[in-house]
Amino acid sequence: MTLAREGWGIVTATLFFTLILTWFAGWWSLPLWVLFLLVLQFFREPQRVINASENTVLSAADGRVVHIGQAPSPLDGSDKLKISVFMNVFNVHANRAPVAGEVTHSERFPGSFLNAALDKASAENERHLIAINSSGGEVLSMQIAGLLARRVLCYANTGKTLTIGERYGFIRFGSRVDLYLPLGCQPQVRLGDKTAAGITAVATLPLQENQTATEAVIK
Length: 219
Known about the structure:
- This protein is an alpha+beta fold.
- The protein has helices spanning 8-25, 30-42, 121-124; strands at residues 2-3, 44-45, 48-53, 56-58, 63-72, 79-87, 94-96, 101-109, 127-134, 137-145, 152-154, 161-162, 167-171, 175-181, 186-187, 194-195, 201-204, 213-218.
- The longest helix has 18 residues, at 8-25.
């Protein structure tokens, strides 16, 4: 178990003020120690072993499946299969590439901070969209800020080549990730299922020739 780099500053600051308060207030500092432990567990980031065939679509987020169905692409309006995963404050919040391929589009959209479990959050909340040109077709992954999340971090710029399961972003304090897949994909999860980023297969793409299983260790 490691600590996400996005949390180093917050964890260090929380620990510093907790120690100071403990020095002056003793047991009265106990609530701050509880807060420190909550912050520490929020920014935890376990190492993931990625083992998936190239036609597999992996979950981009840890959380719970809250939507499966047809929806228009936020990029061009074409029909897509949309699978949404809601991340609560107790989930690991690092995001991972659902498929391998080149990032052909990367764009941030300003917006509101509604409850990310609501479907309208996909269109109204602050979010960041990337399009990945995979061997099975174009796959969109959209990071969405939530009620408490105030910052969406995406490190996948246009032109970057991602491996399946590669860490590409982070969202702080409760959020959501929407995947938009070709209509030919077959869902492998149901509403309410729990997912792990880079581990859980959420759908399968049509298998093309000369594709083989891929195994990697992503840190």
